[in-house]
Sequence to fold (418 residues):
Amino acid sequence: MTNEVNPFESLQEQIDDAAVFLDIAPDRIERLKRPERVLETNLSVEMDDGSIEVFEAFRSQFNGDRGPYKGGIRYHPGVTRDEVKALSGWMVYKCAVVDIPYGGGKGGIVLDPRDYSASELERITRSYATELRPLIGPDRDIPAPDVNTGQQEMNWIKDTYETLERTTAPGTVTGKSPTSSGSAGRVEATGRSVMLTAREAFEYFDRDIADATVAVQGYGNAGSVAARLIDDLGADVVAVSDSGGAVYNADGLDTEAAKAHKVSTGSLSGFEGASEELRNDEMLTMDVDLLVPAALENAIDGTLARDVRADIVVEAANGPLTPDADDVLTERDVAVFPDVLANAGGVTVSYFEWVQNRQRFAWTEQRVNDRLERVITDAFDTMTDTYERRDLPNLRTAAYVVAIDRVATAADEAGVFP
Ligand code: GLU
Fold:
């Protein structure tokens, strides 16, 4: 990972790259390049041994022109203010690409959850939710899971908010467990949209994904579900990795057994279904048809991009390619299907969860998956049509042209207050 590349600067560069192709005044674009506000707070939380620990935490509300701020909460030692700002901006353009009525936000706490007990994590989460309380709500800002958070954290946030507000408002947060007003299909949704994007990408190039070899970098919720669903299409997932390294098998890995191994041992290393273990950079530059970066930002920089041998890259993580990597891959004719489309399944099913919460009516998993498929394939077609019709340099620029146009139009229609 290239730590020197600031993800907030990457986001701004991506917006600038697309703005060139839009007839929007520079002052209007400037507004769309920075967050409306950022909460920075220090949470003082009592540990199990009675000591107090202070945790730095953020919530960035980037843009609300198309609807309430929306986006996940990340628990990671690498969280920074600029990372959260970038992630909140990516949410704005992601929601606009798939045309769901949300703006963008993102939150994070600087911590490694593996270092804390369940009751410590509960107190940390409730302390954060208490800080967020005046800023969030079903019509204001709606958090969700992100790296190292899931149903449990969302259930705690919902309970903290509802208790303090003396109400029931399940649509305050999405990604809850189904028994606490979560949606069927939400856990798989991000991986599912990655699979749908990969399936459409192969069809777009008149290739059969069932003949493809695949490498997946990152084996958390997005990567492991994407690997399994792509495997189900008949492709050979030959390599998967986590922060400890990659496992490889030329005949294809059993993606579910690899997940089970990771859950039981804490890492992919030592997986008996692998014939070889590789370093992370070796797997990112493997000779495969499809590469799915599904870990963190900046996984592939300009130098590594020169050695990428996949023909198609589908971004499951947010911001896995630096702008330099983008330039190199564009020049080398490697097709990159961007994060703002490929991983938008998570927030799309969050939207379905919010709609169900408002109606107090639960959809079946089939209905969720069918609607998700429609949203992703429609957005895919709009992106590829825009790419061809406007003769744009790459698909990310096409996605941003579609998204910025939608956000800028909503902003213009709203005017400026006061
Ligand atoms: N954290 C996810 C993302 O980056 C999901 C956000 C949401 O559901 O609001 O898209």
Q: What stands out?
A: Residues 35-171 form a domain with the Rossmann fold fold (CATH 3.40.50.10860). The first strand starts at residue 37 and ends at 46. The mean pLDDT is 97. The radius of gyration is 20 Å.
